[in-house]
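#struct-help
A.M.: can someone run this one for me? Single chain, 246 residues.
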Amino acid sequence: MTMTSKSFISPDWPAPANVRALLSTRNGGISQAPYASLNFGDHVGDDPLHVLQNRALLRQLLPAEPCWLKQVHGTRVADAAAPAGVIEADASVAQRTGAVCAIMTADCLPLLLCDRSGSVVAAAHAGWRGLLDGVLENTVAAMRRPGGEILAYLGPAIGPDAFEVGDEVRSAFIDRDPVAAAAFKPAGRAGKWLADLYLLARQRLAGVGVTAVYGGSECTYSDAGRFFSYRRDAVTGRMASLIWLA
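D.P.: on it. Structure tokens below:
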């Protein structure tokens, strides 16, 4: 078993040369089904030794151990350079060279951010709850840069043709901002809608001045060969999205 070019996605965005980023796929690890094979989640029922070995493989590509978070679909932003330990947060930010921001997903939207001068990076975990409550706004605020100075990359998430939600989710977004109505289309069943996480994220980023947004074309749900999907499989692994300053 070895990680290959199919194990990771390199963001296609005009980040400064000292900004490094990787987003994993499900391929190239040692975990067995239903976690096959490059699972980084240590909270999903996988063999802990397999997760540790997958993380050790990843560590070879990084300047330091990533700042793994205990993600709770909240809005807290942690310092990726903080001392090691369990940090309950759904985003992290780094200004120190070599500190690695990391988040795990399996349908929720992973976002990587940097500023145009390459002095700060961040990673955010944005499911619909986090998007609604402001995790992206909090992450941008923690970067302490004007929105126009920030670049964002939207990693693989459940796509707009697969993410079905109820009336209550659509109403919650529209109550916060009527423009969110554009991110929902009827699912063909009463009270059900298809939600576009990518568009919702772009709307929220635009609200804080971040308009240089890239990515947002993958669907974890429909591409079982490349991605884990909680909505599709229920019991599954987790992919990692990582960013750091070199």
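A.M.: thanks! The mean pLDDT is 97.
D.P.: also worth noting: The helical segments are 48-59, 128-133, 135-143, 167-176, 197-207, 230-233.
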